[in-house]
Amino acid sequence: MPAINSITLVNPISGRGHLDAYARLYSRAFIELGLKVTLFAETDGDATDYLARTSPQNAPLFSFISFKRAQSFGAATNPGTTSAFGLARRARMVWQKEGAAEVARRTLTLVLERSASFIPGPVRLQALRLKHAIARRFLASPSENAFSLDADPGRTRFQGLVDGVRTTAMMAGQSKSDLVLFLYLDLMAEQSQNTSCLDQCGAPWIGILFHPRLARDCNAKTEGYFNSHLARGGLFLIPAALPIYAKATPHLAFALAPDVADLELPADLPAVAREMRRRAGNRRIVLQIGSIAAHKGISTLLDVVELADASQFFFALIGEVHWGTFETHNERIQAFYARPPENVLVFEGYISNERDYNGVIQASDIIYAVYQDFDGSSNSLTKASGLRRPILVSERSLMGERVRHFDIGQTSPQGDAKQILQGLRSLAARQQGSFGFDRFNREHSLEALKALLANTIPSWLREIDPVATSRVL
User: Fold this and answer.
1) pLDDT tens digit string along 183-200?
2) What is the mean pLDDT of the chain?
């Protein structure tokens, strides 16, 4: 290991059920490598208690600082920030720091907020629509980078997170962190006016990119945030991305990370798992768990339910339903949820406790993950294998390749209900001890992640040629 003592993990999407698992697991990996870890997020996602349970000797190396606490600390220790200035001076400072687009965005936001008490709701709604329409209009034009009100609509801006990274270092009594890791880079803004602040991190930074763009289209532009002078690379979960990014960004260091999962179990089965088992009786339980959205192949799953023998299979759909994704299938799926068949349990909503989430998986017999047009990695493979439950996935996908390679389930053509049902029958007929769970679990374990991080950290800490980061990637 090189001379590194501390790392800051930045989680922009905490408090979202099992999505917090990566913050917990990467924190554990780093503290067990002997590093001080500061998690900067809205909530700690049970990280503090998890580390106390699973790694008590190393847990003192971990600390959590919330967005709110860092903001309060920053305001108290920096009374000369923009909030202390007059409106004109604040606008001038924002213009110099973040550009005209940010001035326009903040002005519109301020007007809309201040108008809440005396302008009727419908009028404010029209103003919001106008704001977004103007933004879309500029985004469609060649001048989008210079004039758009929000050049990254729907994306999370880096500026507040970068400010927080510097603040957390001060709160920890450090001048800066040795390394910064951004979880979920896929959510982050890319345009230059939103990423230039990354050079103010005070430390080299890396990130996890779950859906790297060049892996989908090798002729596309590299994600804009990798133009930062302090960018050092990051982690992929998709093997195909490595050679493409090595060629496109030779000055950066990327590594293929194991798709780790939190596999802790609850002391007692959660209520939904008990209800599922009670209603299923002796039937095989086929579980679809997690976000319920169109890309999960839900419309085809309904076809499978209709074809299946209700005396042999019991289906459970558990997770928050994203109704807006189903389009033409929306009416049918709503009707299904309103009156599910006798051999179906539906449960809408996040299971916020990770141990309860795992308890539901362990209470099932087969995991259903025949996703539609999905070629990424999925934590569902690690969950299923780690809890020793076979999984059914789409055959032409990365998930399908891994299921076949490790023999941890079955593959079927997406959208083909008859073939999917045959896959379920095949899995139901196999003996539990015949699957290759152990080999998969070794390659996607916390120990495998720790070994990868220990080997890759030196590459992330090296100095790189500043000319390389100034290229248009």
Assistant:
1) 999 999 999 888 999 999
2) 85
Per-residue confidence (pLDDT) for residue 312, from 0 to 100: 98
* Domains in the chain with CATH codes: 6-75+156-260+448-469 (3.40.50), 83-147 (no CATH), 271-443 (3.40.50.2000)
Residue 84 has pLDDT above 60, yes or no: no
Token pair belonging to 411: 């593959």
Six-digit token string for 158: 């880096």
Q: Which residue type does 404 have?
A: R
Q: Rounded to a whole number, what is the distance in angstroms from the first to the last CA of the chain?
A: 30
Question: Model pTM?
Answer: 0.83
- pLDDT tens per residue across span 42-58: 999 999 999 999 999 99
Residues 434-473 have pLDDT tens digits of 999 999 999 999 999 999 999 999 999 988 765 555 443 3
3-state secondary structure the chain: CCCCCEEEEEECCCCCHHHHHHHHHHHHHHHHCCCEEEEEECCCCCHHHHHHHHCCCCHHHEEEEEHHHHHHHHHHHCCCCHHHCCHHHHHHHHHHHHCHHHHHHHHHHHHHHHHHHCCCHHHHHHHHHHHHHHHHHHHCCCCHHHHCCCCCCCCECCHHHHHHHHHHHHHCCCCCCCEEEECCHHHECCCHHHHHHHHHCCCCEEEEECCCHHHHCCCCCCCHHHHCCCEEEEEECCCCHHHHHHHHCCCCEEEECCCCCCCCCCCCCCHHHHHHHHHHCCCEEEEEECCECHHHCHHHHHHHHHHCCCCCEEEEEEECECHHHCHHHHHHHHHHHHCCCCCEEEEECCCCCHHHHHHHHHCCCEEEECCCCCCCCCHHHHHHHHCCCCEEEECCCHHHHHHHHHCCEEEECCCCHHHHHHHHHHHHHCCHHHCCHHHHHHHCCHHHHHHHHHHHHHHHHCCCCHHHHCCCC
Edge-to-edge strand list for the sheet holding 366-369 = 344-348, 313-319, 284-289, 366-369, 391-394, 409-412
Query: Closest by alpha carbon to 168, among 299, 276, 244, 71?
Result: 71
Lowest mean pLDDT segment, chosen from 116-130, 138-152, 410-424: 138-152
Record the tokens describing residue 310, joined without a space.
């209700």
C-alpha 93/C-alpha 82 separation (Å) is: 7
Token representation of residue 358: 């795992």
Percent of the residues in the chain that have a pLDDT greater than 90, as a whole number = 69
